[in-house]
């Protein structure tokens, strides 16, 4: 015979310890991290959905819930700098375990269960801690999981020789060949410290469409070749430091791309460092086993057009509106297009931009144009007030076309290099005719075949119809068809 009170106790004890993680999450976390885990108030608070902070070991998140977290922290490639209050005094171990089990298995997260015992142990280990954690402290105890390498089918070849610049490796015989299963570029198979070269080949698997940032430094020299184009190169002999670090941004389609790195070491210190980050900062990591440490002073990381392609730089750029898009053409003529004012606002020649200040977080400091003599054409909206920016497209050569809509009128605004310090701007419209502001801050003088703007810019406008009013130069765009302008910088 089963006694009723026996069944009752069995029923009571089991569910009594099973806390409802979802319910507790709503009560204790969702005000800041949102019910959907994306971070409350439109992402002002960091997300838990897809966050690397709650992956693998649960200890990292347990400690954050127990003691709180404050100061700068990066989550999914985005910087935050707020404070999360400690909850260890309010929440018992089984409730923390239930919340974190829920967080680790919701919204696409896929990490294991957290038991009350794990929390008890973690709490005991840091019992004498009074202050909230900083990101640096917690990462020292519980480092973040590494992003899996996007390099598949990686092979390495080692060559012996004394080189002070890149040899033609394909004409040489390799001393050693390895398949590098871990997808990490390393000098560990070099077998010597001086007078050698290495070549790595792989498929770079881009996780999605968009802009990829690569940074490269090595001692002594080398280069990175993506889809048979040299994208980065370090010349000559020298140490691996900020002054010899190069970076570039490449627009890639998701999927497989051929990838090759060539490298040589003369003598002295050797090393190679290559990092990548994917679209919207969602992915990032090192492709090498040594990562160049950021010196306390921001290193110089020139962003340059590569192999005949324009470089696009989309971060805060000094001297223009928050949505400024930098374009560096091969040949050394550069501009910033403001997506707020729908106009090319800054023009300069020489080096494009230096991304050194943005080594870690994105867009922390505005990046100044790297060249000299930056000329400002305008700083107010180019179109009537109801004009809207609708994004931009890149043609196969990497040249951008900005898309603008004014009611039912569609305007495209295309830029391409035109030799020397010149570029061509082609505006097409479909809809109604409209007036566009070309220049407003510099003195404007008519020339025989165009306009002189300030001392350094000449503008040819073909047969477009100009309007000069109070030193402001406008053009009339017809209701359909193309208008081609040519800007030349001295
Ligand atoms: C009062 C707002 C607030 C509450 C409530 C809160 N958090 Fe946070 N949380 C934050 C902030 C802000 C940060 C980032 C702190 C910083 O900038 O240093 C953070 C960071 C985190 C992180 C690390 C970064 C990330 O996004 O993955 C985790 C994990 C986390 N919180 C989990 C939780 C859990 C679980 C709860 C509920 C028990 C919770 N938080 C409750 C505000 C809050």
UniProtKB/TrEMBL annotation:
This protein's UniProt keywords: Heme, Iron, Metal-binding
A Pfam family this chain is assigned to: Cytochrome_CBB3
Record-annotated Cytochrome c domain positions: 16-107
Stretches assigned to the PA14 domain: 149-290
Record has Metal-binding as a keyword: yes
Gene3D superfamilies membership: Cytochrome c-like domain (1.10.760.10), Toxin - Anthrax Protective Antigen,domain 1 (3.90.182.10)
Name this polypeptide is given: PA14 domain-containing protein
């Amino acid at each position: 015979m089963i006694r009723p009170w026996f069944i009752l106790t069995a029923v009571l004890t089991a569910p009594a310890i099973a806390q409802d993680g979802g319910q507790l999450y709503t009560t204790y976390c969702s005000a800041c991290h949102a019910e959907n885990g994306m971070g409350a108030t439109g992402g002002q608070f960091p997300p838990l959905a897809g966050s690397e902070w709650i992956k693998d070991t649960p200890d990292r998140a347990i400690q954050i819930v127990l003691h709180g977290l404050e100061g700068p922290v990066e989550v999914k490639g985005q910087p935050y700098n707020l404070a999360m209050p400690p909850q260890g005094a309010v929440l018992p171990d089984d409730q923390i375990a239930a919340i974190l089990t829920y967080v680790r298995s919701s919204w696409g997260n896929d990490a294991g269960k957290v038991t009350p015992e794990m929390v008890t142990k973690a709490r005991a280990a840091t019992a004498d801690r009074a202050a909230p954690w900083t990101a640096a402290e917690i990462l020292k105890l519980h480092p973040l999981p590494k992003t899996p390498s996007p390099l598949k089918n990686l092979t390495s070849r080692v060559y012996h020789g004394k080189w002070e610049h890149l040899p033609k490796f394909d004409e040489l015989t390799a001393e050693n060949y390895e398949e590098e299963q871990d997808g990490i570029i390393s000098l560990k198979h070099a077998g010597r410290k001086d007078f050698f070269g290495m070549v790595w080949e792989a498929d770079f698997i881009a996780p999605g469409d968009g802009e990829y940032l690569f940074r490269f430094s090595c001692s002594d020299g080398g280069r990175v070749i993506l889809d048979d184009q040299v994208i980065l190169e370090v010349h000559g002999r020298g140490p691996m430091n900020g002054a010899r670090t190069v970076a570039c941004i490449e627009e890639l389609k998701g999927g497989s791309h051929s990838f090759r790195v060539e490298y040589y070491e003369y003598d002295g210190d050797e090393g190679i460092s290559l990092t990548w980050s994917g679209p919207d900062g969602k992915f990032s990591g090192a492709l090498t086993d040594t990562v160049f440490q950021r010196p306390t002073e921001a290193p110089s990381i020139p962003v340059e057009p590569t192999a005949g392609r324009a470089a696009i730089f989309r971060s805060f750029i000094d001297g223009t509106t928050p949505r400024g898009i930098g374009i560096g053409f091969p040949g050394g003529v550069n501009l910033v297009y403001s997506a707020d004012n729908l106009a090319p606002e800054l023009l300069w020649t020489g080096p494009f931009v230096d991304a050194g200040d943005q080594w870690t977080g994105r867009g922390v400091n505005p990046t100044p144009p790297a060249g000299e003599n930056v000329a400002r054409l305008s700083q107010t909206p180019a179109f009537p007030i109801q004009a809207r920016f609708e994004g931009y497209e890149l043609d196969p050569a990497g040249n951008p076309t900005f898309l603008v809509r004014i009611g039912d009128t569609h305007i495209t605004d295309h830029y391409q290099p035109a030799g020397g310090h010149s570029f061509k701007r082609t505006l097409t419209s479909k809809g109604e005719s409209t007036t566009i502001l070309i220049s407003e801050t510099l003195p404007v003088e008519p020339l025989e075949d165009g306009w002189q703007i300030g001392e350094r810019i000449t503008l040819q406008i073909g047969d477009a119809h100009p309007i000069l009013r109070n030193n402001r130069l406008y053009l009339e765009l017809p209701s359909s068809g193309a208008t081609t302008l040519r800007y030349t910088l001295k």
